[in-house]
Amino acid sequence: MIQRFFFAVVTNQKFDIFIMIIILLNMILMGLEHYEQSQDFENALYVVNTAFIVIFTTECVMKLISLRLHFFKQAWNVFDFVVVVVSVLGQICRLIVLLEIVLINGVWT
């Protein structure tokens, strides 16, 4: 039941257009990063980037559920999967570093 629903969503042209718009916005966001940007700007970029990662991860999971192993037969899906995994791992690494900084500075003691 859920597989059919996700299949109907991910094969819909409107869904593809939505994802393309998100990709375009993500590219614009990446282009906004610059040397010596303010901490507030960096924090805002991090939050928006995290939202993009959530959207792309959700897309990937929906495609995996709907297409099952056929997902890996399309090169673009494999590319998307790798990008999502690397992005999620990057977020996890950033959280680990932030946690280490907090523990080293004794904020939680």
Structure characterization notes:
- The structure is a single chain.
- With 109 residues, this protein is mainly alpha-helical.
- The protein has a single domain, classed as Four Helix Bundle (Hemerythrin (Met), subunit A) (Up-down Bundle).
- Helix content is 81%, strand content 0%.
- The radius of gyration is 17 Å and the shape is globular.
- It starts with a helix and ends in a 5-residue tail after the last helix.
- 1% of the residues are buried.
Could you write a compact summary of the structure shown?
The protein has 109 residues and is mainly α.
- pLDDT under 50 segments (min length 5)? none
Strand content: under 5%
Q: Summarize model confidence as the mean pLDDT.
A: 93
- The rounded Rg comes to 17 Å
CATH class: Mainly Alpha
Order of helices and strands: HHHH
| Helix proportion range | over 70%
Distance between the termini: 49 Å
Can you tell me the CATH superfamily? Answer: Voltage-gated potassium channels. Chain C
Question: Architecture in CATH?
Answer: Up-down Bundle
Q: Let me know the number of strands.
A: 0
Q: How many domains comprise the coordinates?
A: 1
- Report the sheet with the most strands, covering strand number, pairing sense and barrel closure: none
Q: Which outline best applies?
A: globular
CATH topology-level fold name: Four Helix Bundle (Hemerythrin (Met), subunit A)
Count helical runs. Answer: 4
Structural class: mainly alpha
